[in-house]
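Slack export, channel: ligand-projects

TW: morning all. Re-posting the request from yesterday since it got buried. We need the structure predicted with the small molecule present, not the apo form. The ligand is calcium ion; the SMILES is in the block with the sequence. No rush, but it would help planning for next week.
GE: picking it up
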Amino acid sequence: MRTLVLAGALGALLTGGGAVGAVELLANGDFELPLDAGWSSEIDGTGVTIDRQINFDTDLDYEARITKTSGLGYGRVGQVVAVPGGDAVFSAELTSSADAILEAWAVAGVMLTYYDTAGTPLGETFIGSLGGVCPWMDSPTFHMILTQTGVWETHAFALQEELANLPGVDPGALASVRIALYAYAYDC
Ligand SMILES: [Ca+2]
Ligand SMILES: [Ca+2]
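GE: finished. pasting the full C-alpha cell output, ligand included:
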C-alpha cells in the first residue's frame, strides 16, 4: 500500500486593509527567500519533504512544496500572524493532489487555523485536496474549500467573510491565524 500526498507551491499574501492601506503581514509569503525566513516546519512521521524551487510552475519566481509519501504522519510548514482588527485578507496561489488506495487516505493543501488572544484554536479553513476514504467533513468550526487536483488556483477572501462559514467561531475573538502548507497521510 502506498499513500502519496503532494501539496503544491503557495504564494500567500495577507494584508490588513482599512484607511491606512494594505500591509503585508506574512513574512516571505511569496517564498522568494529561503524557507527559514519566516516559515517553520513541523514533521511527524516519515516520508515528508519540504522544498522550494522556481520551476514548480512556469513563472520565474519561487514556490514552496511539501510532499508526504506512504505511512502515517504529517508535515506542515507555516507561520502564525497577528491580525489586528481582524480585517485581514488572505490570498494564495496553490495546487495540490492527494492520492490513497484501499483504506488509506490523505490530504494536501493550505490550512488556516484561527486563534483567540489566548492562543486557543477557534477553528480552521482547509483549501486543497482529499484522497481515498478521507473522513474529514465540514463542521461549525471547520470549513473545507476543495480544489481541482493538479491545477493552479488562486483563492482570496477576507478572513471575516470566511468566518461566516464557521458558525462555531466568534469572529470578534479572532486575534491571529496560522497559515500553513499541510500534508497528511493515514496509511492503514
Ligand atoms: Ca513566489
Ligand atoms: Ca515559478
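GE: first-pass observations. Residues 159-162 form the longest helix (4 residues). The CA atoms of residues 57 and 63 lie 8 Å apart.
TW: perfect, thank you
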